[in-house]
Write a structure and sequence with these properties.
The complex is a heterodimer. By secondary structure, chain A is of the alpha/beta class. Chain A has 27 helices and 41 strands. Classes of the chains: A alpha/beta, B mainly beta. The complex binds flavin-adenine dinucleotide, protoporphyrin IX containing FE (HEM), iron/sulfur cluster and FE2/S2 (inorganic) cluster (FES).
Amino acid sequence: MNAQTSIEHPPTTRKRERLVVIGNGMAGCRAVEEVLERDAERYAITIIGAEPRVNYDRIMLSPVLAGDKTFDEIVINSAEWYADNGIELLSGDPVQQIDRDAKTVTSQSGKVVAYDKLLIATGSDPFIIPVPGKDLNGVITFRDLDDVEKMLAAAAGGGEAVVIGGGLLGLEAAHGLTLRGMKVTVIHLMPTLMERQLDEAAGYLLKQELERRGQTILTGANTKQILGADGHVAAVELEDGMRIKADIVVMAVGIRPATSLANTAGLECERGIVVNDQMVTSDPDVLAVGECVQHRGQCYGLVAPLWEMCRALADQLTDTDSAYEGSVTSTKLKVSGIDVFSAGDFSGGEGCEDIVMRDAARGVYKRLVIKDDKIIGAVLYGDTADGSWYFDQLRKEADISDIREGLIFGQAFTTGGALADPSEAVAALSDDAEICGCNGVSKGRIVQTIAAGAHTIDALRASCKASASCGSCTDTCEALLSLTLGDQYGGERTVKTMCKCTSFGHDDVRRLIFEKELKAIPEVMQELHWTTPEGCSSCRPAFNYYLLCAWPGEYEDDQKSRFVNERLHANIQKDGTYSVVPRMWGGVTNPTELRAIADVVEKYNAPLVKVTGGQRLDIFGIKKEDLPAVWADLNAAGMVSGHAYGKSLRTVKTCVGSEWCRFGTQDSTGLGIKIERMTWGSWMPHKFKIAVSGCPRNCAEATIKDFGVVCVESGYELHIGGNGGIKVRATDLLCKVETEEEALDYCAALIQLYREDAHYLERTAPWLERKGLDWIKAELLDDPQSVPVLAARFRYSQQFMQDDPWERRAKGERRDLHAHLGEIRPFNLEIA
Amino acid sequence: MMTQDARWIDIGLASHIEPGTARTLPVQGGEEIAVFRTMRGEVYALVNKCPHKHGPLSQGIIHGDSVSCPLHNWRISLRSGEALGEDKGCTPTIPIKLDGGRIYISRKEALAGSRAEA
Ligand SMILES: Cc1cc2nc3c(=O)[nH]c(=O)nc-3n(C[C@H](O)[C@H](O)[C@H](O)COP(=O)(O)OP(=O)(O)OC[C@H]3O[C@@H](n4cnc5c(N)ncnc54)[C@H](O)[C@@H]3O)c2cc1C
Ligand code: HEM
Ligand code: SF4
Ligand code: FES
């Protein structure tokens, strides 16, 4: 402590105890208000604040930035309030030291103030990510009015802003800066915006909406450095090398409780200043409140908990018994025109159940998480009207079992009890209530149509178009059928649904992806009203394939939605190691390939190398970390992935044919190789095997393959829909062609028809039996244009499929999928 | 790089695990650990062995806070290690904490089973 300063006592100290508050922010001032309300005479109060101004509503800085409010409008306590209540305000002068023995605090300007009770309310400090360039001019945080003024000054010149952090704060900054005329890019580390408040589905809708407003949103983007010119920011560089021009950079990646003052004074601190239920720190005369504290292991970054804390604190300071027991929080994003609400825990877990409602036409997504008949979490996007009601139920831990059915439709549907049953809710709708949003069909119209004879969903769809488009009103239409027809209507829904997440079947999903031009998994889930937030291990791989097939070259493969074999490009074995099958075109090999394989077997101690049923060699027992090195060795000998692991073209099995065999009629090996060169790398609904035999003796067993060619003197017989396996099915003859070119075209066309029509995980044999051979023949053979058109679509798609995944991995792509995170040894740890 | 502490072992940055995936952490003389990061960014650690037939859970598809085993599709809770649905069984979990973007794993449980337990 500085010796030269005299100790200053707050006015009228004689009778009153001295309460000193560090931090003139939201919690500090509220605490003082609460104390004054209980006992205005008890304390002589001094508030010391770092900011050179009176107390204001910090959360309204966002509207100030956006131009919806002025600073004067967000002041909470004006200078008169301090004067009227005899509070001494020392503003613009941060406290630098607490001396707990002398019971004084010292400010930057050297003032020493004595206390009987000290209250620390220093809030939080913005977290600055430690990247090169973080100290350049133009790197701004978003915490106080000074920050807003800096942003406004920068925005006055237009230009480009990069906001690092796609949480609440970052998005509000981005919104404000966009309205002020800047071109804004948001860089967010996680794949989902506001991932702590929103789930993937809601985050996706939010991203789409912000993009529609002209912001560029980069998710899964890691900042590498901030580049400067003449000491001022110029650009932000991402880990992947991308550079974004920037006149200012707003860091909004999170906050840290401001504990340094308390820590230096020897008060117990962990993440925040540790307080008990009365908000008392490890020193009985020092209390703390607001974002700087840690209570029962929890730190908060929202205002609602502060209000509750301040009540317990004021009780404590006025000798009343009470306890703060922690808060449940809810969040709303303050961006005009975007309604987002979230509360509680929605990460799921044991015994949790989701109720999801999606209304694509209105851009609404609602999700409630229920556990033990109580709401424990809620995420609402697009329609947040019921947010506070859900939050209320959540906080009261109300039992919702009686109102569960209608819960997701909100308070109006559930209170009063009468409408709790959804069919009653439907019955209670007025005749002009719109049921089918896509085709604008009212309840009255549907009831009339049913009365006029449309007694099934299909009939309804055909006659009044209700439920004929997106299908989200199918449940309501079924309810109307059963209401109108009574027992006559037994329900139907013969279509097998894709999985438990939906009432749609595969065909609907495939058709709608195409019709509505859906191009990303979360988008499909939203538009098709998926009832789970992230889908499941059945529908995610199916979506990934359907999108890949529908939008070749456009859709980016989602590795997270692939089964392990396709993610690691090798076959997992029961001991967790992998087997590696390099491609041998048409089953033909040479000494270089064989030598490379032999070397790999020795180098990596592969315990087994086996000739497969598909005419190539399978190397067993490779560890996932060794895969890229194995592939590099195989690539070096000219070999590529054999896709023995994929729902894709596997092998083209051939016999030696006319080149060597005395019975051979055509060059079956040569044709097999041409077919394999054309088809390798293509993703399919299921695995796909091809064979070419040189004569009807059929040594390559072409008649138990998905596509089999049997050569004859006059040309090529094309067979389809066979497989070996548990239930052997021999092929059906599709047709006979005369030239190799035709055989290749028909092969491409059949594959494309299968790719575009079959359900995910349906092989050609069950597909053929479901659709009928006649249907397939008609699709391919009736119109002479069909084969060339389908074959052209296949070849177009192959452009994007035929790069060897092994080569990319061997060169280092997705190293994280192969390398260990590190290794633990009993006494130390190696980070890989 | 390593940070030592009696209770926790620093195993590096959370950002080294892409959300929705898992990575592995072999333990010398002990059971390999799978470290999962969910789409929401939560981190969990389990012994990398399915309770069914010891499939490597790190290679399963992760949805919400469960993982589907790559071998026979059992669904395992990342929170408790319990098999979900009809299946019965449990994989040991290892306590984790996140601090400043880094993952810390509990030393005692991580080394459980290791002969040279510290
Ligand atoms: C732009 C923005 C938007 C927000 N929007 C929302 C929202 O919509 N909903 C919501 O619930 N929450 C929101 N918040 C969070 C909310 O503002 C905080 O939770 C709240 O302000 C915390 O109050 P506090 O008193 O703990 O900290 P603060 O209000 O930050 O007050 C702490 C004060 O202490 C001062 N101080 C720090 N160290 C010293 C020192 N050594 N000496 C003297 N003074 C010191 C600081 O300068 C500051 O004035 C938002 C925050 C920001 C920045
Ligand atoms: C997880 C399950 C399976 C794995 C990992 C697997 C793996 C393999 C592999 C690696 C090959 C060698 C093919 C090649 O060279 O590419 C093969 C061949 C074969 N598999 Fe499977 N298989 C599986 C399931 C099945 C099933 C369910 C069937 C039956 C429907 C089946 C039928 C066959 C047949 C008939 C062959 C020989 C192919 C030929 O002669 O051309 N397999 N399998
Ligand atoms: S299928 Fe005919 S051509 Fe081919 S190897 Fe057998 S006998 Fe010879
Ligand atoms: S080993 Fe995991 S499901 Fe069988």
